[in-house]
């Protein structure tokens, strides 16, 4: 939880609205790969997301609209991590869980939140989608999904591979009876 929350806040400092917004590269989502190794990661990631999103309410001034992110953004992370755990025997497939969950859920509430604080402009353009919810959702679906896929496969998959080479063999060896180890 602390790792997810801390990494999200650091991402906010260095990537600004790319950690929260219509285009997202929330680097902390790569930690969903930890659910490939242990079911304990699922509640930890969800709690870390809650903490980060509550902190964002204070930092961004979204007020009560930020509670949409606390509830539904954290739900997306929890569902994605749960899917990852359930499909852990196929890591490449399992990491699609956070991509799909965030791509479907986040764009459903993000336009409401961003319009509430006065903007929904496509980053790096002057294209304003204010008042065009279907267009905002489709843009968010594509942008959030693409950003999540980059994070999960460029950062999460290598993280899993590195940890599985060192952590997983030791975990399995510690579960064997002494006569076999």
Quick rundown:
This protein is mostly helical.
Gap from first CA to last CA: 33 Å
How many helices? The count is: 6
Shape: globular
Strand content: under 5%
Mean pLDDT: 85
State the helicity in percent bands. Answer: 55-70%
- Major beta sheet, specifics? none
Please provide the ordered H/E string of secondary-structure elements.
HHHHHH
State the total count of DSSP E strands.
0
Residue stretches low in confidence (pLDDT < 50, at least 5 long) are: none
SS-derived structural category: mainly alpha
Radius of gyration: 17 Å
How would you describe this structure to a colleague?
The chain has helices at residues 2-15, 41-60, 66-86, 91-94, 96-116, 133-175. The protein is globular. The two termini are 33 Å apart. Helix 2 packs antiparallel against helix 3 (66-86). It is mainly alpha-helical and 181 residues long. The chain contains six helices and no strands.
Sequence-ordered SSE layout with sheet pairings:
Blueprint: H1 2-15, H2 41-60, H3 66-86, H4 91-94, H5 96-116, H6 133-175
Helix pairs in contact: 1-2, 2-3, 3-5, 5-6
